[in-house]
Design brief:
CATH topology of the largest domain: Alkaline Phosphatase, subunit A
Helix content: 25-40%
Number of helices: 11
CATH class of the largest domain: Alpha Beta
Radius of gyration: 22 Å
Distance between the termini: 25 Å
Length: 508
Amino acid sequence: MKSLTALLTLLALGNLAAERPHVLLILADDLGYGDVCCYNDKAKVATPHIDRLAREGMRFTDAHSPATVCTPSRYSLMTGQMAFRVPNGGTVFQGAGGPSLISPGRLTLPGMLKKQGYATAAVGKWHVGLTFRDALGEAIHQGGRKDVRRIDFTRRVEGGPLDHGFEYFFGTACCPTTDWLYAFIDGDHIPVPPQGPLDRSKLPKHPYANDCRAGLIAPDFPMEEVDLLFLKKSREFMLEHMRTTPERPFFLFHATQAVHLPSFAAPEFQNKTQAGPHGDFIGELDHIVGELMKELEKLGIADKTLVLLSSDNGPETTSVAHMRADHDHDGARPWRGMKRDDWEGGHRVPLIIRWPGHVKGGSTTDQLVSLTDVMATLASITGAELPQNAAEDSFNLQPVLESKATKPVRPYLLMQAFAGARTLSIRRGSWKYLDHRGSGGNNYASFELKRYKLPEAAPEAEGQLYDLSSDPGETTNLSLKRPEIVAELKALLEQSKREGRSATSPQP
């Protein structure tokens, strides 16, 4: 009997291994809900490849980045834990900034998949923090140009992707064309260090080009073609993997520069969209998605690959303001707010998942989900076990993907705005409570944003309560009219903070 049980177990494990899909996770940067045609019928930039992904997969209409800015969102995606729960979890790193937000020993998404036999690779923007050292071996955790000058480039880069579950990495420490250090990390070294200051006089000049700091640049760093190089590296990884170890599934995390400012589309994409430089950049992103899918098809594994596409937060203020004024394109449509804000425009993002044979093509779901849920979902799909001290805010979406969910997967959703733990909000059903005043991020008294400032319905209230079913634009603060709802949601938020998790604890 024991032998039969053991045999059945081995057969079950073998079948599970055979069914484990390759995983391609494409994370765009600052791509708004309204930037994609299949989410916004008034979008001014065609996105045929992303739209095709939606036709062949599932489109989530109520998906959220864990935070309204880059670093904490990426931390939460990689760990399944909200970033406000860890020290410096509201930080946005620049240049040589660090150390890594991911503590040593914490189980990560790539680490979990690696334990399940996956080859793990990351290409593109890291931005979760790492550690460079100077000639004396002292850690450098500041981001400016003077700090980049201190880096001893002969030393290993610590706390990067290779220390957190990835076996291969090619990319940048922070925002590729924004943050002081313009050089590529290959594995855990920078093989071609910066040799001098960036000459910005040779770069494009337009309203979307001014987010480029005067840092130091390596001679092999192509400011206008970074994303095409990332595409090349991801293609090379997939090709080499399928040539050498085709029996082993892979997890490829492709994190683009697009469409983070500065909007430096490659020359072949410039003036192609009739929607300005940022529209051209959105067009380049769509092309990259299409090329990655073509590579899967060329390798014969498109139907054996689970593809996820999303964004780390909502669209940037500059791109929203200028695209609205100049091209009648609204990257935040139909929501209030934008990047950094705790209103929906800051964190409601596109999420499309394609998984042939499991996800019905052309399907749509209004399930409330977060990018933290990727970890528990892939754990379920690959048969991984999540320990008690991992993925504390991650819920399993596999029943949703397979159209088997009969009720909401999540009891509630936590969100984190620009100031981290000081600007949290909670969503349960259609009720959303912001445990702070104002946007939680942007200054709407500024010249660029004051035209979008709305009158405050309850200026004396300590927080904001909105019923998204009747007020999706978050225009009417009901905090003083529905104090019982405020009390319930605030108590639930405090309970989650106290317990250190929102997901159900794993069973022993």
